Amino acid sequence: MGGPGDPPEGTPEGGPGGAEDEYRSVVFDESFVRAARLQESSAQERVSDHAPAVRRRPPLHRGLSRQALVLLLLIAVAFATAVVMGIRHPTGVPGARRPVQPLRMTVVPLAPLGKVPGAADVASLYRHSPAAGFEPGADGIPFPAVRATAHFSDSQVTAALTIARTYIVRSSANPDVVTGHQVRGVRALLDGDQLDQFDQSFDHPAADGRHSPTGWVVRLDPSRVELADTGIRDQGTLQAVETDAATLEVTADTVVVYALRPTGAGAGAQVSLFTVRRALTFRFDRDDLRVGQTQLTVSDVEAGPLSCADDATGYFRPLLAGTTARPGAPAGTDPFAPAGTPALCGTLATAGGPKV
After folding, report:
1. Taking residues 229-254, what's their average pLDDT?
2. d(CA 191, CA 98)
3. Of the listed ranges 49-53, 200-204, 236-240, the one predicted with least confidence
4. Which of 54, 174, 183, 214 makes the best surface tag, with the fewest CB within 10 Å?
């Protein structure tokens, strides 16, 4: 039976609370209707064309869905990114570094042809030497004209030249380094992958073309000589080139001159000049430029006046005013040692630069 307010036959179909209530939440919008595969023929079509009550609609010719377009766009972006990164990093995985080369070095002592000249006055000694026009420190190593390369900006080239010049000055014109007291400032400029070689060179010096402290820095034996003038003078050139899309290379050719006297001799002692020529090659990748470091890959050093019989691996032991080179050959060379390098020696011209 129905409720008190319901008619005896129950709620009418189609009325409130009837069977249609369960379909009220279903919305047949326009897109739903358009998507239907069957379509009812109109009354006019059934009368005039004897059409069937319903007919199958032709399939809709839709374009790509929004999801498909987004997917295609993401694929295109990923492909373009891979191409660009492959161009910027031709060596392989983006961001991967090439192995850092160990430093290769040669140290050639230059023996005087006669007595080492000297003078009591440092200024007079410089004035009558080939170093008369040299400048102290960084002033003697001017920058070349800076130009951007194919893959490095002018600011990056400038950074490479600055780091290289800083290394040269710290390693050859800093009195604390030259007198063997510290090398921290030089070490801080080296790429981290070269620090083991650098530390081993100072902890265990060896004349093997890899581990000579005098290949990294100019270091004088403090037990034998001292600086008569802390204004160390030099002259040099720098040149930067791009060797590939990931590497800048700076080559430096510098001559550094030191005024020396015997250790503890006092201001009245005769002063002599000691000359070191260094041909250095620095390599930079973008990581080095970002952190202000370098990879020193080649160091060719000539220094004199020295005795060829003295070992110049750990320290230079300059010949001072009035002395001559001791007779004798350079330090012995073992031809059977695969890591060894030939012992070299040259002569120091009295009126010119170093000559081998």
Report:
1. 97
2. 12
3. 49-53
4. 54
